[in-house]
User: Fold these one by one.
Assistant:
Number 1:
Amino acid sequence: MLIIGERINATRKRVGQATVEKDAQLIKEEAKKQVEAGADFLDVNGGIPGRETEYLPWLVKVVQEEVDVPLCLDSADPEALKLALPLCNKRAMINSITDEPEKKQALMPLIKEYKTRVVALCMSASGPPCTAEDRISTAVRLVEFLTGEGVPEDDIHVDSCILPLSVDAAHCSGMLQAVGELAQRFPNVHRSCGLSNVSHGLPLRKLINEVFLGMLISRGLDTAILDPTDPHLMSVVKAAEALAGRDEFCAEYLTAFRAGKLV
């Protein structure tokens, strides 16, 4: 399971304030905590309106002064990415490309030049998906477009687009169906999600997130953008991977248990 730490996001009040004030220490602490908790990548989002070209490169520099993991640049702004990608010490991921013609054409040269991994978000020009069929058809178009442009399947992480359960319960069943279908259709393409969207507007959000993550892993999810500093959530990852048959002899589960990481 590839874990992408979500916490360095300038749309979060605390991180946004630290970014505006250039409080490097707070950003470094967030980076270090996530890597120590098990993040494989760190998502970096400098999306303060009108300032992303300034803040995204700054965040990349600060994070890399503290940790040595690859970064997932959470931006659809080609200008901000042009400034940030050359600063990345390791091969980066771009989060995300969508099935919108102008955005695809704007991001594709950067994906090719820097040979990035890419999150392919199942969003089209008509908006977010409503059904499993919407998600699958958009994913197929994105995968075919990216592979046609020379992107290896192993570098593609399809995000079938989690929408809030509080808005429509069908969003979750559609997401589950899409992840399972895509795992069968494109076994060499990864399945991803931005987990916390599912619980927006509901109480006990962590409970919703944990249960849904386990369900998604059972369908074939192998990448997730989440909060790795939540020990309950990370315990769900280990248990669900074992139950899904993706942890031979429960080795990873047992290693985490012996290290005192399961709660």
Number 2:
Amino acid sequence: MNRTTSITPSRFRRALLGVLLCGLAQPALAVDSVFAILGGDRNIVVYGGGLGWEPWWSMPMENDRLLSLRGIATVTGWDNRYKPVNKSLVAFGAYPVLRFEGGQMWGLVPYIEGAVGFNLLTHTWIEERRLSTAFQFGEFVGVGFSFGDKHQFDLAARYQHISNADIKRPNDGLTYGNIVFTYRFDLN
């Protein structure tokens, strides 16, 4: 018997609201940012958001450069653009993110980042893609810049891949581009 969990827009909104409400407890959780994600490939739209933690580790370098490691948690919805069946799922992700920030230029702080983490999916197929396992690895690379009076805003472009690393076949996975807008609070 092939059972799937139906993810309605209201269920997705409740899950996303729960993640964002965790941001209210940010002093206890060391959460320092919230972000929104929008992207996808030719058949699947990916949207959602998440929380970012204060850096776990950072190494200042000369010329105002900085290398840091922080964690993020994501909740994303995947919607099939064209087919009425197998049309959506939700992915819950956690990633440690390594970021290299360059020195400030014209009021902007450019950076590059990369991450390898994991995702848990609400079901294992969307469109004609068979993902086989609810547990999926994920990795991304991105470029972006911080801006604002205290550099409290970030805008980044990322290239992301999610698959089960052949734990089980088929392993169709999803590779897509996305845009991420971040707001960091409690900056000095």
Number 3:
Amino acid sequence: MYSERQDTMRRMASLAITVALMLAAVPAFACRPSTLEPTADCYGWEISGTMEFYTSTECAITYWVNLVQDGDTIAHFAGTGTVYAASPDFSYSSDWGMDLCGDYIAVGWFKFVANEGWGIRTFEIPFTCECEEPGACTYTPGYWKNHPDAWPVDNLTVGGVNYTQFRLMQIFDMPTGGDMTIQLFHHLVAAKLNVLGGSDLSIVPTIDAADAFLMDHHLFSKPKGDLKDMAEDLKDILCDYNEIPCPDDDDFDVLGASPREMLTSPATEETSWGALKKKTQ
């Protein structure tokens, strides 16, 4: 009787040990991929695949990734992450955290912490990222006055009034004579042409405000006091925008002339509004 009881106890102990060993081995088995594919692109890198066994186990991975451009490491990523083996498919990814432009190589390694026997896996993945084209240059009223063939449109609405290119060119020829509406008009037209040509859209709220001002205080109205100051403030913002340096001024040429050859306001020869109306009729 005693011998049978001892045998039973030994079998139960052996079974308990076996179960304990099996349970201890679950994470290792659950963290063993059957397929694996590291990838990298302009947004980040990723490790994905399928698990040979899967349970509710969380699998820790250790990784090390370098982002290389022209032989230099420009970013380094290292640490420990977690993938879930609750289904066959798994993935772990990280963004570069920066905008990329040009040719790169993602070089790295990773391993599953719970399955050292599975070993370290390495990868080296080249990829190319397109570079965003810089915005179009901005140009001054003088430039647009002297390059009518470069205009993106043949007519333009300014201050609620639609003008043909010919009429706008005539107004460009008008002397400002201390009338802030004329100065504002010149820079408003230039800013609108710049935006239509593809330049930065951040100026649009100021364009809208200048349009509204000229709708309430028409061209040649010579505002005084606070109204004059308001028009001048709008003009100054538009002027700063129209004179933003172009990145390639030195080697860019439009119609045989540098885009900055005319940084001044339009010509200031004396022209009366009555004479202008006769010219444009």
Number 4:
Amino acid sequence: MTERQCPLCAGDATLVRPLPAHGRKEIRGIDCDRCGTYYLTEQAKMELGDPGRSRDRVMVSWVTRERSEQESPITLCSSSYKPSGEPDGVRIDEVLNTMAPHSIPERIDRALLNLARRSRHPGDPVVVDAGKDWPLLFTENREALDFTLRHMVRSGLLDEFSSNDQGGG
């Protein structure tokens, strides 16, 4: 394993071995504290690397983190990918159009579901690290995560929260 930069959030990431079904050399496995474990083709990495796609990278990181937390890592393929008997991958445009939440209410609902998955039972405290968990709550950064958590408390969706900001971007 080699230390690398995450193609989605630019944070520190570890290159992991692709799943055995991914015998193609251009598929990389990434393990990132923010974006979770996911796989991507070299073409997808190049597509998402475009400087004008920063919002797309954030939205894709929401989905990769959620899927990683569900222990169902996703394989990202370029928007031009056409499956031909290889292991299934998901095109970036599919992630953006059908898998990522688009409205604020949908983002809040899915964030609550992600928090609930971390809880063993109702009332169990859930730890959220603002430096690395912002994709899990479908926010763009730690400041947006803090705002979202405060909104959830004011709306009665959460009882309380206290910030556990460990740094990072």
